[in-house]
Amino acid sequence: APADALGRRVLCGTERATVRYVGSVPPTAGIWLGVEWDDPQRGKHDGTYEGTQYFKCRHPRGGSFIRPNKANFGVDFLTAIKDRYGLNVEQDVQHGTEDTLVFGKKTVEFVGMDSIAEQQRQVQLNQLVDISVRECAVSHAGQKEEISRTCANIRHINLSKNLISSWETVTAIASQVQNLETLNISENKMKFPSTSTSVSSVFSKLRILALNQTEITWTEVLLCAPGWPALEELYLTSNNITVLERPDNVLQTLKLLDLSDNQLLDGNQLHLIAHLPRLEQLILRNTGISSIHFPDAGFGCKTKMFPSLKGLAINDNKISQWSSINELDKLPSLRSLQCHNNPLMDTEKNPETLRQLIIAKISQLEILNKSEILPAERKGAELDYRKIFGNDWLAAGGNWNPEKNKPSEEFLAAHPRYPSLCLKYGAPEEGELKGRQPLTLKNQLLTLTIKCPEKPEQKPVEKKLPESMTIQRVKGLLYRLLKIPGSELKLSYESSKLEGKEVELDNDLKPLQFYSIENGDCVLVRW
Question: Which residues are CB-contacts of 402 (< 8 A; sequence separation ≥ 6)?
């Protein structure tokens, strides 16, 4: 076994493990390695043999003893590169004696061929910019300065799923790569510094760092972070991080942070990272959060937290209350939201209705669940929201008279955007808020005027259409009515409530009711 075997990562067949013990195990002879397997199903015990505990395991059956010759302790970084990129052996020709080459069955003399081949390999290695040695059993840096001498142009390295056991090894490799910009060392279980270390320039140009499944803690992230002065993207998924701490004078250049698959203690943990000045993307998939709250801002106000945050992913969490969606409207820069697979999504049977409610509640949102929000969709969502909750607004103290309009705190807490929607579109009229009649076909019919503004010779036609009729079917009807190919039609509508404004009916798959068309409105037809 190597002298530094204790704590090293090893490969045994296809299984990975960490060496927890090196020594004898009486009554057997010779040296044994006590290993803790990554997959506890591979083990036999917890490090105890015949009553003596030689090492400890997290899992009661996660340990085994193996002979050193069964353990692969890995290779150095440069050897892995040469193996991966076919630069260790000649693939097309075989070397014969020192001054000959064997081509098939012919032997040809070629004085100095070895040095030429070595020079060619050297040139090829020097041309490598983006290197992946994933799953190549890399465990150490190798000889000092050998990497910088051989691979001077490397900028991007994928070292994921290897046998790296400490951050020191990563530093030893990176110190020989002058212009390192991207580094992925995910799926390496390793030790990180437990105390602050002296800041070096090793990672001075590093912009992207992936530390997924490395068992790093947030405290260790902050201890290493002074060495990442230019870092823009940090990936920390699946590390059992539960609590966060405020980053003081570190990670100030960070634009993207991925904490997915870490079960955070609660949503308040987010407040501790809320003042990263340049953070634009925050990914929190499956983090166990059940609520989001920005206590520094009241109804209709913007928070000082996450000042630059444009994109937020909170998929696969436990958010069940609309209050958390209301809170997201406080984020001053939010443009994109992903929120699939939360209990809140089950509160509405119709996913389209759910989408409209979220759009109406978050004023600056441009993309929801990776789907763009077009201006017509936003307008329809906001008008519907204003109408749906109009009676609640009146009952809570809302009034068409501005002097008497004093909705309750409870209403404003549930619908913080309602006052701004009334300012934007006007308070809902009394006729809009009358109780809906039973949904018979007769009550679902809309009486609409059909006009062709560019064809004055075409007289306006009045038609009764079901509000559930899709724009595509409306075009088909107009084709028969006006004798025009439906694919060439462009539809829009005017309403007395939206004087001077014309709303495009631009999605063939949407029903009329999606655009909030009402009785008496005028559909404009162009071609």
Answer: none
